[in-house]
Specification:
Distance between the termini of chain B: 55 Å
Strand content of chain B: under 5%
Order of helices and strands of chain A: HHEHHHHHHHHH
Largest sheet of chain A: none
Number of helices of chain A: 11
Shape of chain B: globular
Radius of gyration of chain A: 19 Å
Number of helices of chain B: 25
Order of helices and strands of chain B: HHEEHHHHHHHHHHHHHHHHHHHHEHEEHH
Helix content of chain B: 55-70%
Oligomer: heterodimer
Helix content of chain A: over 70%
Shape of chain A: globular
Mean pLDDT of chain A: 89
Low-confidence stretches of chain B: none
Structural class of chain B: mainly alpha
């Protein structure tokens, strides 16, 4: 009985992230449009886009290999699994112990590896430019991310997201400088990883500024739908992760009743809405930076993460 | 008959095979049976050592009345040697099987065949040696045998230079080890390892010994700054030997360091751990940055070996830091991470070097910028090579990530260390390891993307074909192990438990009882990782996604030319090349590491000459250390050159003056 309930919760979370991911992107787009005094598309537009892409014929370049055709499914699967193992509305999901925070970061790394390969598969200049820049950004983002993870893990005494979230809700945590530094580092990394302004522009099709879009330029139809869906899921994952670690309120505990879980879902929706609005505000207020300024941006994230970790490693209680 | 004797019999068999190869090496078709014989002997040695390791056999001794009179040669096999014997002989089995097919392409097999079993014998001997003489003798034997193999294709002046640099560095390394054993034996001259173990070392002496061992073993393993020979020598040898040198011989050096630092001296001083950690972390980043700039596939892989060795030594440094402070479990965790990475690296580096050899045979070039599109031509090799690339990039769910994950868990234990210096160092090393892992991913995306994907960049890549069955079989075996070790890391962690007990006195908690085969290094509440479940999840989700899209989406697809932004399709030259792929990293991290700079010469409007761009990348380590040493030595020898053209009278007076000076010196001293 306990097992079935747990399994149901896990399955529910898998479906929940799937259902909410396009909505989150839709809301961000809508808020951004309103902020720039446009009316903007409906918040459900991403769903329609996905359905449209699914129905369309896929055009594959002559030279594309099996990597190009299988990559979208693998990227989608890796991102989906990572998103399904991140606490959203409750902690202690059935399989949450199979991957800790480091594994979740690395899973996204696997997805990026495959995407970068797919970008180089056809043999055009655009795919290569995207892959090359993406891997450069990752080279700076990953250490920064890991240092932020170290900080959080040391405060909570665990790398398991469930345990971290549980610890963060307790009174033991208090206000800490290191956590604030880690939060900033994590947000900067999240912006870079999700190809948002100022690192990359998700709406652009001006080739010279593209990173993510350049890699997927050759994709169409159902393959593009999978990749788009994966990037929606990735944004949701980062929002949930930051939410679970730094704003863990309302998360239902393991063994809580249905009503408590329902409340958890409601709070989670609120957190996502908040994240969407903040992201849209930030994106509207900043300008895209040149690609070679990105290392400076991520270098700052790295320094913040390092400072945070250092405070904990050396100081103990900051 | 104990295990040590069995292993020694394998060594004797290798040596006999070397002698036989000397006689038969020039015959046509001799290489395949000889390599099969190598594989059979190595497989026997592997089976013996694995059985002993899993069976938890204690140390066994075996003495031979050969060598220096009244001392003899002493051999000993314990858990540490069993583990490394298993790693080395497995690498040897795979390399020999690969060479059964690969060796057919060899034009001068008689230059390789006799030295190959001798090299394997020497590596086995180093791991079995139980006194300083035997150890150093085997070590030199290993250096010389591999030197001969590096020189196998001696017509190429590059290879001759590589062999020369290798020999110089190998002599330097042995010199350092000579001092190590001199200090270890002390004035009493107890050169048996058993005598050395029973001695007490004060902190200063122990530290000096460990630093010298770091220099001596590190020069063989490829630690910066004594790594310079490695990217020259490893690629110069035939590919199966490159695989052995990169994947396996560097591990003998790791063994030597562990044997000296953990077993003979024993770690008691935390301050000695700091340089090991720092050098390891710096080596990892420097090695992979070099690999990112490289366009020769075998040199690229050799540089990536330097990175992995850096990771291994950084973890050993953490193990030393924990051990010196009496933190048994974290020390075991770091140590096990290092050993796991030793095994992993020997597997995927073997895979990658074998594949590189096959690609070299198929295309005739080592330059990845001349390859491209191999995925359409080497259809069987392509997925296997991809597994190797994913594994070495430390990505889940393959084996490279499993050891990397353990390493990060070990780093996370370091705030408990009492020393402030180590506390500051630990997150820095963690960040360096993360940077190295991210750069490794970039490096292997670049390698795979440029060599296997896209369109053929050179004429030779168009005609490439899959390698023969033996080569493919050896590569597939390694790929299978990458997956298996990745999915069942607990098995490996448990297998190396006796080694940790031997070196540190405490093993990691056994993993075999864990639910669902996860690995839980310290405590389930702290961290756990279950690659099997993760893999099942990803496979399930991917299949589900493909199934749903098959069910509901349009099945139609159409092939068409790639999108050229409305322009005519462009030629393969317009693809992203390896140099352009690494340009963003060259312009950021390369500025620091290589003093990299680009200068563009743009002709003014109306000018007809082509625009040019020059890229400067300097090897700062070479310039700062080796370049200077070479300059000084050159200057001195220029000065001394005059001495060779003197008259006989002058020579006689020189001899006389020297004699008088020496006698005077002697008189003054006594």
């Amino acid at each position: 009985m306990v097992l079935t309930t747990q399994l149901m919760f896990q399955a529910f979370q898998m479906l929940l992230v799937l259902a909410l991911a396009p909505l989150l992107t839709g809301v961000v787009r809508k808020v951004k449009a309103r902020l720039t005094r446009r009316r903007g598309a409906s918040i459900f537009q991403p769903y329609r886009d996905l359905f449209r892409l699914m129905r369309k014929e896929a055009v594959i370049a002559d030279n594309a290999s099996w990597i190009f055709r299988s990559a979208p499914y693998l990227i989608f699967a890796a991102t989906w699994v990572a998103a399904a193992l991140t606490p959203t509305f409750r902690t202690g999901l059935m399989f949450s112990w199979s991957a800790d925070l480091i594994v979740i970061v690395a899973l996204l790394g696997s997805a990026r590896f495959i995407l970068a390969l797919a970008g180089m598969d056809v043999g055009t200049a655009f795919g290569g430019i995207g892959s090359s820049r993406e891997m450069m950004i990752a080279a700076f983002a990953e250490p920064a991310m890991l240092l932020a993870v170290f900080t959080v893990a040391l405060v909570a005494g665990s790398t398991e997201l469930s345990s971290i979230a549980a610890f963060m809700t307790s009174d033991a945590v208090g206000l800490r400088v290191s956590l604030a530094l880690a939060l900033f580092a994590l947000i900067m990394v999240a912006i870079a990883e999700n190809a948002r302004i100022p690192v990359d522009n998700p709406a652009t099709h001006l080739e010279l500024t593209m990173v993510h879009e350049a890699m997927v330029l050759e994709y169409s139809g159902r393959h593009l739908a999978m990749i788009e869906f994966a990037s929606f899921l990735k944004l949701l994952l980062y929002a949930s992760m930051i939410g679970a670690v730094f704003a863990p309120w309302g998360l239902a505990e393991d063994g809580a009743g249905v009503a408590r879980n329902a409340l958890g879902v409601m709070v989670y929706l609120g957190k996502l809405l908040g994240a969407a609005i903040l992201l849209a505000l930030f994106e509207t207020a900043t300008a895209k930076m040149r690609v070679f300024r990105v290392p400076d941006f991520l270098g700052a994230a790295l320094m913040l993460g390092f400072l945070g970790a250092l405070l904990l490693f050396a100081g103990g209680r900051f | 008959m104990n295990e040590a004797a069995l292993q020694l019999m394998c060594v004797a068999a290798f040596l006999a095979l070397a002698a036989a190869s000397l006689a038969a090496g020039r015959r046509p078709h001799a290489s395949a049976p000889l390599y099969l014989a190598n594989a059979a002997i190595a497989a026997t040695a592997f089976a013996v050592s694995v059985a002993a390791l899993i069976g938890g056999r204690g140390p066994v001794l075996f003495d031979l009345p050969i060598g220096i009179p009244w001392i003899g040669a002493h051999f000993r096999a314990d858990a540490l040697s069993y583990f490394f014997l298993a790693v080395i002989n497995f690498g040897a089995v795979a390399a020999s099987l690969f060479a059964v097919g690969y060796g057919r392409q060899e034009r001068e097999p008689h230059r390789i065949l006799p030295f190959y079993p001798a090299f394997l014998a020497a590596m086995n001997l180093v791991l079995l040696a139980d006194d300083a003489f035997t150890f150093l003798l085997s070590w030199e034997f290993m250096s010389l045998a591999s030197f001969a193999l590096v020189l196998a294709h001696h017509h190429d002046p590059e290879n001759r230079r590589a062999a020369y640099v290798y020999l110089t560095m190998a002599s330097f390394g042995t010199l350092a080890l000579l001092f190590v054993f001199g200090l270890l034996a002390g004035p009493s001259g107890g050169y048996l390892f058993a005598d050395i173990r029973s001695r007490e070392f004060e902190a200063g002496l122990g530290g000096a010994v460990i630093l010298l061992a770091l220099l001596g073993a590190g020069s063989k393993a490829g630690l910066a700054p004594v790594h310079v020979w490695l990217p020259l020598a490893h690629p110069a040898a035939p590919s199966h030997v490159s695989a052995l040198m990169s994947g396996v011989m560097t591990k003998v050096a790791v063994y030597a360091f562990i044997r000296i630092a953990f077993d003979l001296v024993g770690v008691s001083d935390w301050s000695i751990a700091a340089p090991v950690m720092l050098i390891g972390g710096a080596t990892a980043v420097l090695g992979i940055l070099h690999a990112l700039m490289e366009r020769d596939i075998k040199r690229l892989l050799a540089y990536s070996t330097i990175e992995n060795i850096g990771v291994i030594f950084a973890m050993l440094g953490f193990a030393m830091a924990f051990q010196a402070n009496g933190m048994a479990t974290p020390a075991a965790l770091a140590f096990v991470a290092a050993l796991f990475h030793v095994a992993n690296h020997s597997i995927f580096k073997g895979l990658l070097f074998f594949s590189a050899g096959s690609m070299l045979n198929a295309t005739g070039v080592r330059d990845i910028e001349q390859m491209g599109g191999l995925i359409h031509r080497m259809r069987k090799l392509a997925p296997l090579f991809l597994i190797g690339c994913v594994a070495i990039s430390a990505l889940p769910p393959l084996n490279g990530f499993a050891s990397e994950w353990l390493a990060f868990q070990a780093v996370l234990q370091s705030p408990e260390l009492p020393q402030l210096g180590l506390k500051i160092l630990a997150p820095m090393i963690g960040a360096l390891l993360a940077l190295a892992a991210a750069l490794a991913a970039a490096c292997f995306v670049r390698l795979y993307g440029v060599a296997f994907l896209g369109r053929p960049r050179g004429a030779s890549a168009v005609e490439a074909r899959d390698p023969d069955g033996w080569s493919l079989g050896a590569i597939a075996m390694m790929a299978a192990l990458c997956v298996l070790f990745g999915l069942f890391p607990g098995v490996v962690v448990d297998a190396v438990a006796p080694v940790a007990t031997l070196a540190l006195g405490a093993p990691l908690a056994p993993q075999s009882g864990n639910q669902w085969l996860s690995i839980i290094p310290i405590d389930a509440a702290q961290s756990s990782y279950n690659p099997l479940l993760l893999f099942a999840f990803i496979a399930f989700s991917a299949i589900l996604a493909a199934f749903v899209s098959r069910l509901s989406a349009s099945h139609a697809y159409r092939r068409s030319p790639a999108w050229g932004c409305g322009f005519e399709p462009t030629g393969p030259q317009t693809q992203y090349s390896g140099a352009s792929f690494s340009q963003p990293i060259r312009n950021t991290l390369g500025r620091i590491a290589f003093d990299a700079a680009e200068s563009v010469d743009m002709p003014s409007p109306g000018d007809q000459r082509p625009a040019t761009m020059k890229v400067r990348v300097r090897d700062l380590v070479w310039d700062a250390i080796y370049g200077r040493i070479a300059t000084v030595i050159n200057a001195i020898s220029e000065k001394l050159n005059g001495l060779q053209f003197l008259t006989i009278r002058r020579y006689l007076s020189l001899v006389f003056a020297t004699l008088v000076l020496l006698l005077l010196g002697l008189a003054a001293w006594s």
